[in-house]
């Protein structure tokens, strides 16, 4: 029913208000109020509570590892901007001990400030570790996705190549690749990334094969969805959890390889400060000045251990049922 004005008599007050036109300004004000309320509740919850809901950082080794890993990354990014000492400048103040005026951690055999070298040495190591891990993740995930989804001859050919690469010890494969390309940052990133890709490829293939057999992938294929779209939009998001955890753990291996190759003279070249090269340069003074070896070696070890604990933490949080 409607009256003479054309309005529905059956509408209540609330319905009438809902049916009435609302200005754009009113809608924006209501939306801003809703957003402020949501943000307020989010701030009340806190970032720590959100992380706990995700299951991240629930154990004390994981908490310590997260803090240390974030601290090392921050030191690598902003530390060189805060340290005024030149890490490559040689002075006559050689082998100064801890707590020397102007040199908190002393100097090395060439009079270079040890604190400045440690801070500046974090950046090249972390760059190589992150860049090579990213390269390994792209190659390994791409090969594994294609092999697990395609199956048949494609899977057999790709995985035989992966098995052939895994037959070589990773460190020997890295040394061969870096030695063939020549020492330097680029060859180190490529060598470490290529050597670590097969392990990620095997995991990605197993996860992709598991997802390919599920109903939603079968429905997508029957519906005519193209292969690239199925791989990127359907399978990849569902295997991202365990893959991210494994990539973080691979980061620790990449950092170890980078430091080891720098120690052998195949990685970051002097005079650029690098933790691996600092261990090699300081081993001559292991008994007279052990700090020249212990400090960079300990930082490298802690970074590797922290990456492993963080990877375990992410694996438990993102893939609690396991990958089997």
- The proportion of strand residues reads under 5%
Mean pLDDT equals 81
Number of strands: 0
Amino- and carboxy-terminal Cα gap: 64 Å
Label the overall shape: elongated
Whole-number radius of gyration? 28 Å
Helical coverage, percent range: over 70%
State the low-pLDDT regions, or none. Answer: 1-44
How many helices? The count is 11
* Secondary-structure element series: HHHHHHHHHHH
Helix vs. strand class: mainly alpha
Please specify the SSE layout and strand pairing.
Layout: H1 13-19, H2 24-54, H3 60-82, H4 114-150, H5 152-167, H6 170-181, H7 185-212, H8 215-222, H9 227-264, H10 275-282, H11 291-318
Helix pairs in contact: 3-4, 3-11, 4-5, 4-7, 4-9, 5-7, 6-7, 7-9, 8-9, 9-10, 9-11, 10-11
Tell me what the structure shows.
It is a single chain. This protein is an all-alpha fold. 73% of the residues lie in helices and 0% in strands. It contains 11 helices and no strands. The chain has helices at 13-19, 24-54, 60-82, 114-150, 152-167, 170-181, 185-212, 215-222, 227-264, 275-282, 291-318. Helix 4 (114-150) runs parallel beside helix 7 (185-212). Mean pLDDT is 81; it is low at 1-44.
């Amino acid at each position: 029913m409607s009256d003479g004005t054309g309005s529905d008599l059956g509408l209540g007050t609330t319905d009438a208000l809902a049916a009435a036109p609302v200005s754009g300004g009113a809608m924006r004000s209501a939306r801003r109020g809703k957003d402020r309320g949501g943000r307020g509740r989010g701030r009340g919850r806190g970032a720590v509570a959100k992380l706990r809901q995700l299951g991240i950082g629930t154990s004390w080794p994981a908490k310590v590892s997260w803090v240390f890993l974030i601290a090392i990354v921050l030191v690598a990014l902003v530390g060189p901007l805060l340290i005024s000492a030149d890490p490559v400048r040689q002075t006559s103040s050689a082998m100064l001990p801890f707590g020397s005026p102007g040199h908190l951690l002393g100097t090395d055999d060439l009079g270079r400030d040890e604190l400045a070298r440690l801070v500046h040495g974090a950046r090249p190591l972390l760059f190589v570790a992150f860049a090579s891990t990213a390269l390994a993740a792209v190659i390994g995930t791409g090969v594994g996705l294609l092999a697990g989804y395609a199956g048949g001859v494609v899977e057999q050919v790709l995985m035989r190549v992966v098995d052939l690469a895994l037959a070589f010890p990773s460190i020997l494969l890295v040394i061969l690749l870096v030695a063939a390309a020549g020492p330097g940052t680029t060859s180190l990133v490529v060598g470490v990334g290529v050597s670590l890709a097969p392990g990620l490829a095997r995991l990605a293939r197993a996860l992709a094969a598991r997802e390919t057999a599920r109903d939603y992938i079968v429905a997508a294929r029957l519906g005519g969805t193209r292969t690239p779209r199925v791989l990127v939009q359907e399978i990849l998001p569902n295997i991202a959890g365990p893959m991210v955890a494994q990539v973080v753990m691979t980061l620790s291996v990449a950092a170890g390889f980078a430091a080891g190759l720098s120690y052998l003279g195949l990685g970051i070249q002097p005079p650029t400060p690098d933790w691996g090269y600092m261990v090699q340069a300081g081993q001559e003074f292991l008994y007279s000045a052990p700090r020249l070896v212990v400090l960079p070696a300990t930082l490298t070890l802690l970074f590797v251990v922290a990456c492993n604990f963080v990877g375990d933490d992410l694996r438990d949080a993102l893939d609690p049922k396991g990958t089997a």
